[in-house]
Each structure stands twice: as C-alpha cells, then as structure tokens.
Amino acid sequence: MPLPWSIIATLGLAAALAACSPAVPTEWRGIPVVKDKLVKVEDTTNDHGLYAVYSGVSRAEMFQRMAASMAGAGYTKVGEAFEGNVHGYTKGTEQLAVKVDQFGDEVFLAVFDAKGKEPLVHGVVFGQYQLGEKKTGQEAKDQLLKDLAK
Fold this sequence. Notes:
150 residues; alpha+beta; TATA-Binding Protein; two-stranded antiparallel ribbon; 4 helices
C-alpha cells in the first residue's frame, strides 16, 4: 500500500532540512563537543571560539559536562571569575575560558581563547584584567589608556 502524500511530503521536508543544517562537529580544538541536548552550534563558531545552544540542561550540569570534556582533552581547571560564571582551563600555553549562560530552558555555551568573541572576559579569568571599582567619564578613559599602554 503506498504512503499518503502528506507523509511523503513531511519525510521529504525533514530530509531537506537535515541536509541544509550545518554539520555538528564531534570535537573543537581536540575537545569533545557535548552532543546530548545540543540544539545548534552557532555560525560564529571558529578557531577561536565554540558557541553552542542546548535545551533541557541546567547551567550546573553543563559546567560539569564541560569539566569532564576539558579534563578528557588534557586541560586543567585553573580558576573562575564572575562569581563562578566563567571557568578558566589551561593545557600547556593554551588558555581557554568556558562560559555558560542560561535563559529559560536554553543554555548557551561559549568556549573561547583570547581572540574569541569575549576577550575581556577571557582576560579577567586569566588575570590580564582585574575587576575593581567602577569608573566613568574621564577617569575611565584615562584608566583604559593607561591599561592599553602596558
């Protein structure tokens, strides 16, 4: 008995969408990509940063999964910043920051080096920048120029 056209059309659409969606990497820079509950890998992913969206997982669980992935790839956790919201990992001279944000049911993972999308965050995790007193106006401008001159 032949399949109804609606089923054939649905299967065809699903196959076409699957063919058009970007391939999900199995690893990024030697770090296994956590695929369970992965929704998508952002188009901004490149050699300097992995940016992915997950659903149905908590921030704490994603940090645990990434800790296991990083350790499995030979990275050592060396610190945290922003009240534990960003973790720093090293392997030899390589330094990667792992940041996990959650909005509702979606978790946004970012793993990046100093040339990734958030170089200032990376710099805080690895001690290049220090969080301190907020400055505004001319005082902030002077401090920024002083820091850039270093």
